[in-house]
Design a protein that fits this description.
The complex is a heterodimer of chains A (343) and B (327). With 343 residues, chain A is α/β, with parallel strands linked by helices. Chain A has eleven helices and six strands. Chain B contains eleven helices and 14 strands. Chain B has helices at 6-20, 44-48, 60-72, 91-104, 134-138, 151-163, 212-227, 244-254, 269-280, 303-309, 313-324, and strands at 2-5, 24-28, 53-55, 76-83, 114-119, 144-146, 168-173, 180-183, 196-199, 204-208, 231-235, 238-240, 257-264, 290-294. In chain B, helix 2 (44-48) links the parallel strand 2 (24-28) and strand 3 (53-55). Classes of the chains: A alpha/beta (343), B alpha/beta (327). The complex binds thiamine diphosphate. Thiamine diphosphate is lined by residues 80, 82, 130-132, 159-163, 190, 192-194, 260 of chain A. Chain A: GO terms for molecular function: pyruvate dehydrogenase (acetyl-transferring) activity.
Chain lengths: 343, 327
C-alpha cells in the first residue's frame, strides 16, 4: 500500500486521517526494523564480526521509513555512507545488508563494497556514496534519464547537513532547477557534520532550507522525527517531481543518537542534548501515535517481535555465510568482467 | 571520401553515434548554441535539438555527475569538459565515482559514458589551459583512456568509446583541431586498445601520442634522410587498454625504444611503456630505452618558452640520432 490517501480506515483510525492504517503500520514496521537491525550491527561490531567502519542512523529512522513508504517501486534512491536505513526502507533484506557489513558472500555486493557502498539495483537503491556530495549530481543524472525517456520515476537523494557546504550541493541544485528534473533532495539535518556542530561552520541557520531560494525553490523545513510529517512532505514532493514540476529540497530536522561512526563516543555534545532528543525518539513517538489511533497493543507487539526474529534469522544466515571468494578480487573492474588494461 | 578537420571530425563522430542510438545524449558548457569553444560541436544542436544536445551551467561536478547518473540508469552520455585542466575540478567523478562503481557494486551498475576534453599545449594558453593530462586518468583502474591524433581516428575511436560499456576519457588535442585528413564516407568504427604503426622502420621504435605523433613522423622522415636511421613510428592512440603487442613486437624487431610524450616527465605514460619493454623484452634490446618529454614544469605562455618546453621534431631528431650513434 503506497499512496494510502484512499487507504482503509478501520480499527479506530480517526475519520480525518489522511494517511491510513496500512501505511502507518508499514512506517512503524520499517522504523522498528531499521532500529533493531542497526542495533544488531553495533553488537556485531563489538564481537568483531563487523569490520571497518559503519555509520548508524539511530534516531533518524522516520525519514528513511517515510520516504521508503511514499516512494514507488521504480523510483531510485541515492544515499550516503549512513545508508543502512535507506537501503532497508526500499525493501532490501536484512541478511543482504548485515552480510555486507560482515563482508560475507551473502552480502549485497558479496563483501566487495562494505558498509559505505550499499547498492541494490533491483530495489532502486542506486548506491551509497562515501564522498560527501558526489551523489547529488548523480541523482540529477538519473532524474535527467527519467525525464528524457519519459520513465516517470523520481530520484530521491539523501544527505546530511554537512553536505550543504560542498560545491556539488550547489551545482546539483542549480542544475536540477534549470533542467526542471524529477529529483527530490532530502537533507537530514542531525545538527552535526562529523564532530563539529553544523552551526559552527555554516553561514545560515538552516543549512539546506535557507539556501533553497537561491535556486528558486520553496523553503521547506520539517520535523524529521515525525514519520507522518515526513510522509506527507514526501508524497507532495514526489508528486510534484512526477508531474514535471521539478525538484524539491527538504530539510528534515533530526538527531543521531550515537556518534558519527563507531569510533566516535560523541563527547562533543552538550549535556542534556541527547536526553532532550531521546524524548522525541521517532520510534517511541510513532508507537504512541499508533496506540492513540486505537491500534491494538498486540498488533504493535507482533511487529516488534517479528522484527527481532528477522534480525536473529539474518544474523544467523550471515554468520553461516562464507567470506567473499578470492575470484572476486579482480572481477568487474571493466565491463568484460575482468581487469585487463592491456591486450 | 572527404577532407575533414579534426574539429569537424569530432562533430561528425558525435552525430554518427547520436543518429544510431537515441540513448546517446550530449552535454557541456557552450556546446549547443555556441557549437563549443573550439567549434568542435557545430551543427549538433541543429540536427538533434535541445533535448539531446544541452548547454549546462559552469558546473563541472554537475556535468560529470549527471552524465554518470544518466549512464548508470540507461543513457549513453557524452560530456564535455572544455579544457582538460578543468578535469581537476570534477576529479572525484573521474577518480572515485565512474571507475569504481562497477567494482564496488559487484557488477550491478555500469557507467557507459564518454568524457571528451580539449587537452594539450602549443597554443600559448599558459599553465592552466595547456596541460596534457592523459596520465592523470591512466593510473586509475576502471577507466579507458583515448587520445587520437587524426580526424579519422577521432571518428572511429569516438564511436568505439560511445559503444563501450566502460567510462572512457577522450582527449582531443587543442593544437590538432585545425589539422586536416582524408576521411571515408559512411559509418566509421574503430577498436579501442589498438595502436597504429604509421611508419614502418627497422632501426628503432618511436612511440608517440596525439600532437607528438605528427612530430614523431616528421622526425622519422628527417632521421632517415639526414642520418640514415630508419625509425618505426607507433601512434598509441589509446593508453587503456594499451596495445602492448604492437609496441613489444616493434621493439623486438628494431631493438631500440624511444617514447615521445607531451606531459611533464614525472610519471608520464612513456615510463610505463619503458617499464613493460624492460620487463618483457629486455634481451631483445640493443641499447637504453629513452623518454623524450616536457621537463617537469608547468607550461609557460610565452611562445618561445612553450616551444622549448614541448618536444619538437628537432629535439626528437637530435635525441634519437645521438643515442643511436652511441653518445
Ligand atoms: C568530500 C569529503 N570530505 C570529507 C569527508 C569525511 N566525512 C565523512 S562524513 C563527514 C561529515 C558529513 O556530515 P553530514 O553531511 O552532516 O552527514 P551525516 O554524517 O551527519 O549524516 C565528513 C566530513 C568525506 N567523506 N568526503
Amino acid at each position: 500500500m503506497k499512496d494510502s490517501r484512499a487507504g482503509p480506515r478501520h480499527r479506530g483510525a480517526l475519520p480525518n486521517d489522511d494517511i491510513g492504517v496500512e501505511t502507518r503500520l508499514e512506517m512503524f514496521r520499517l522504523q522498528v526494523e531499521i532500529r533493531d537491525c542497526e542495533k544488531r550491527a553495533h553488537d556485531l561490531f563489538l564481537q568483531n564480526l563487523v569490520k571497518g567502519t559503519s555509520h548508524l542512523s539511530l534516531g533518524q529512522e522516520a525519514i528513511a521509513a517515510a520516504f521508503g513508504t511514499a516512494m514507488q517501486p521504480g523510483d531510485k534512491s541515492f544515499c550516503t555512507y549512513r545508508g543502512h536505513a535507506h537501503t532497508l526502507a526500499r525493501g532490501v533484506g536484512m541478511e543482504k545488508m548485515l552480510g555486507e557489513l560482515m563482508l560475507r558472500d551473502i552480502g549485497l555486493m558479496r563483501g566487495k563494497g562494505g558498509s559505505m557502498h550499499l547498492t541494490s539495483v533491483e530495489h532502486g537503491v542506486m548506491g551509497s556514496y562515501a564522498i560527501i556530495g558526489a551523489h547529488l549530481p548523480i541523482a540529477c543524472g538519473s532524474a535527467w534519464r527519467a525525464q528524457y525517456l519519459g520513465d516517470g520515476d523520481v530520484s530521491v537523494c539523501f544527505f546530511g547537513d554537512g553536505t550543504t557546504n560542498i560545491g556539488a550541493f550547489h551545482e546539483a541544485l542549480n542544475f536540477a532547477a534549470v533542467w526542471k528534473l524529477p529529483v527530490v533532495f532530502v537533507c537530514e539535518n542531525n545538527l552535526y557534520m562529523e564532530y563539529t556542530p553544523i552551526a559552527d561552520v555554516t553561514a545560515v541557520a538552516h543549512p539546506a532550507a535557507d539556501r533553497a531560494a537561491a535556486y528558486g525553490l520553496e523553503r521547506i523545513v520539517i520535523d524529521g522525527n515525525d514519520a507522518d510529517v515526513v510522509y506527507r512532505t514526501a508524497i507532495a514532493a514526489l508528486e510534484k517531481a512526477r508531474g514535471g514540476d521539478g525538484p524539491s529540497l527538504i530539510e528534515c530536522l533530526t538527531y543521531r543518537h550515537s556518534g558519527h561512526s563507531r569510533a566516535d563516543p560523541a563527547k562533543y555534545r552538550p549535556e542534556g542534548e541527547l536526553d532532550r532528543w531521546l524524548e522525541r525518539d521517532p520510534v517511541k513517538i510513532y508507537r504512541q501515535r499508533l496506540l492513540d489511533f486505537g491500534i491494538a497493543p498486540e498488533e504493535i507487539s507482533r511487529i516488534e517481535e517479528r522484527s527481532r526474529e528477522k534480525v536473529d534469522e539474518a544474523t544467523a544466515a550471515c554468520k553461516a555465510s562464507p567470506p567473499a571468494p578470492e575470484a572476486l578480487l579482480t572481477a568487474d573492474v571493466y565491463d568484460d568482467g575482468g581487469w585487463a588494461w592491456r591486450n | 571520401m572527404a577532407e575533414l578537420t579534426y574539429r569537424e571530425a569530432v562533430a561528425r563522430a558525435i552525430a554518427q553515434e547520436m543518429r544510431r542510438d537515441e540513448r546517446v545524449v550530449f552535454l557541456g558548457e557552450d556546446v549547443a548554441k555556441a557549437g563549443g569553444v573550439f567549434k568542435a560541436t557545430v551543427g549538433l544542436l541543429e540536427e538533434f535539438g535541445p533535448r539531446r544536445v544541452r548547454d549546462t551551467p559552469i558546473s563541472e561536478q554537475a556535468i560529470l555527475g549527471a552524465a554518470m547518473g544518466a549512464a548508470m540508469t540507461g543513457l549513453r552520455p557524452i560530456a564535455e569538459i572544455m579544457f582538460s585542466d578543468f578535469m581537476a575540478v570534477c576529479f572525484d567523478y573521474v577518480a572515485n565515482e565512474f571507475p569504481k562503481t562497477r567494482y564496488m557494486t559487484n557488477g550491478q551498475l555500469s557507467v557507459p559514458l564518454v568524457v571528451r576534453t580539449g587537452n594539450g599545449g602549443g597554443v600559448r594558453f599558459g599553465a592552466q589551459h595547456s596541460q596534457s593530462i592523459e596520465n592523470w586518468s591512466m593510473m586509475i583502474p576502471g577507466l579507458k583512456v583515448v587520445a587520437p591524433s587524426s580526424p579519422i581516428d577521432v571518428i572511429g575511436l569516438m564511436a568505439a568509446a560511445v559503444r563501450d560499456n566502460n567510462p572512457v576519457i577522450f582527449h582531443e588535442h587543442k593544437a590538432l583541431y585545425a589539422v586536416k585528413g582524408e576521411v571515408p564516407d559512411g559509418e566509421i568504427v574503430d577498436t579501442l586498445g589498438t595502436a597504429k604503426i604509421l611508419r614502418a622502420g627497422k632501426d628503432c621504435t618511436i612511440v608517440a601520442l596525439a600532437m607528438m605523433v605528427p612530430r614523431a613522423l616528421e622526425a622519422a622522415n628527417r632521421l632517415s634522410r639526414d642520418h640514415g636511421i630508419d625509425a618505426e613510428v607507433i601512434d598509441v592512440r589509446c593508453l587503456v587498454p594499451l596495445d602492448t603487442q604492437a609496441i613489444l613486437g616493434s621493439v623486438v624487431k628494431t631493438g631500440r625504444l624511444f617514447t615521445v610524450e607531451e606531459n611533464p616527465r614525472l610519471c608520464g605514460w612513456g615510463a610505463e611503456i619503458v617499464s613493460i619493454v624492460a620487463d618483457e623484452v629486455f634481451w631483445d634490446l640493443d641499447g637504453p630505452c629513452v623518454r623524450i618529454t616536457t621537463p617537469h614544469i608547468p607550461l609557460p605562455a610565452a611562445d618561445h618558452l612553450e616551444d622549448i618546453a614541448l618536444p619538437t621534431a628537432d629535439r626528437i631528431v637530435e635525441r634519437v640520432s645521438r643515442v643511436m650513434n652511441g653518445d
